[in-house]
Amino acid sequence: MTEIGLLQIFFYLLILLALVKPLGWYIASVYEGKAWGLHHLGAPLEKFIYRISGIKPKQEMNWKRYLSAMLVFNLFGLLAVYLIQRLQAYLPLNPQHLSTPESAILSAVIFNALIIIFLIPLALRGVKYHHVEAARLLRSNVLIYGLGGLIVPFIGIKLIDLLLSGLGLA
Q1: Which terminal residue of the chain has fewer beta carbons within 10 Å of its beta carbon, N or C?
Q2: How confident is residue 95, by pLDDT bands cut at 50, 70 and 90?
């Protein structure tokens, strides 16, 4: 690994560490239903999104609405990954200059339908890495921009919250 690569990792971890506490406070305040910091700036946007989505914040959701919300949310994530792949020709960090419809569809489907499903078992078991061209393409184009890596933790947090609420522990 080059020195620049190590510096990038260092700065990424430094930024991540700096954001831990403020984001933790924010997430805690959201789950407690309290206004926090810049809430007055985001509230109009939140109300607008609720209005166009048909969300009633005071009304509890049943399991069918939660399931449909998760599926729609993941569908938008799939669409976002596809669009990012289609825009690769105009985005930075595209050394292979990939932007064909086939590579966009393949990357989006593989990432959302196959890779995310197998991430946890592979992480627990461990995998011996073999360098292949397809893995490099996937890593450089989807994992850098792939929204699944950013979205999945939020979905996991919400599912844990639902589980705890369902068990009466929240």
Answers
A1: N
A2: low
Same domain, 153 and 75: yes
Please state the rounded mean pLDDT for residues 87-96: 69
pLDDT tens string 7-37: 888 888 899 899 988 888 888 887 787 877 7
Rounded distance, CA 124 to CA 115, Å? 14
Q: Is 34 in the same domain as 4?
A: yes
| Residue among 100, 75, 105 at smallest CA distance from 89 | 100
The separation between the first and the last C-alpha atoms of the chain, rounded to the nearest angstrom, is: 45
